[in-house]
């Protein structure tokens, strides 16, 4: 059983598609989950409720944390530590491995390449939250309490990724016959992670624009 926590977003949809080549046992969990295929199991749960998270994770070999919270620093500061604690505890309770899909906010300003050894030096409130919850998970991993991994992606774009900044500033405008717009220095290299239909539902190599 592969359980996706936060099942209605674009990452969850792509992940579910990728998992189908490995298993037909996929559980989609959110407040209002919708099956993508007839074989999908759906479960309504609030990730802020520890009992609901435990029930959602029960019986799972792997759980994927791809939850998206409202894009507010105050909401993140209040809710993300609760979500991470609930998910960690549920995975420990049921012996479930965890994959956490994260962004790169925790790194802050980095000169050069980002690697697994890059230290957390957040420069924003949201980045501070991300560093905090990643450290929570890493502490449990180092203690041997849970098998887990953190997967980080740069800004992404692709089919159905309508909340990505490039959708409104580039692709949507070009499709309407308008000139694209950009945020910041247009000559600065910026890494984007793309999903292309030609390779199926997979995240592929970053595209530098």
Provide a descriptive summary of the structure in words.
The strands form two sheets. A six-stranded parallel β-sheet has the order 3-2-1-4-5-6, with helices on both faces. Strands 7-8-9 form a three-stranded mixed β-sheet, with helices on one face. 26% of the residues are buried. It folds into two domains: 2-152, NAD(P)-binding Rossmann-like Domain (Rossmann fold), CATH 3.40.50.720; 156-208, no CATH class. Helix 2 (50-57) packs across helix 3 and helix 3 packs parallel to helix 4. Mean pLDDT is 89; it is low at 197-209. The protein has 209 residues and is an alpha/beta fold. The protein has helices at 10-19, 50-57, 73-94, 125-142, 165-175; strands spanning 2-5, 26-30, 41-44, 62-65, 97-102, 148-152, 155-157, 191-194, 207-208.
């Amino acid at each position: 059983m592969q359980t996706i926590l936060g099942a209605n977003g674009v990452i969850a949809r792509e992940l579910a598609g990728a998992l189908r080549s490995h298993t037909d046992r996929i559980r989609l969990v959110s407040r209002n989950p919708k099956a993508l295929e007839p074989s999908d199991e759906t479960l309504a749960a609030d990730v802020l409720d520890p009992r609901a998270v435990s029930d959602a994770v029960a019986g799972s070999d792997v759980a994927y944390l791809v939850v998206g919270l409202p894009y507010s620093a105050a909401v993140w500061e209040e809710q993300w530590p609760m979500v991470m604690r609930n998910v960690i505890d549920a995975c420990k309770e049921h012996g479930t491995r965890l994959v956490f899909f994260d962004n790169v906010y925790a790194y802050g300003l980095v000169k050069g390449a980002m690697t697994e050894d890059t230290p957390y030096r957040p420069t924003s409130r949201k980045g501070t939250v991300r560093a905090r919850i990643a450290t929570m998970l890493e502490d449990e991993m180092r203690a041997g309490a849970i098998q887990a991994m953190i997967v980080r992606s740069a800004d992404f774009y692709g089919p159905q990724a309508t909340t990505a900044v490039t959708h409104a500033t580039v692709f949507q405008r070009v499709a309407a016959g308008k000139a694209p717009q950009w945020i910041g220095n247009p000559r600065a290299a910026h890494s984007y992670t793309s999903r292309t239909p030609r390779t199926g539902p997979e995240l592929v190599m970053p595209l530098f624009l």
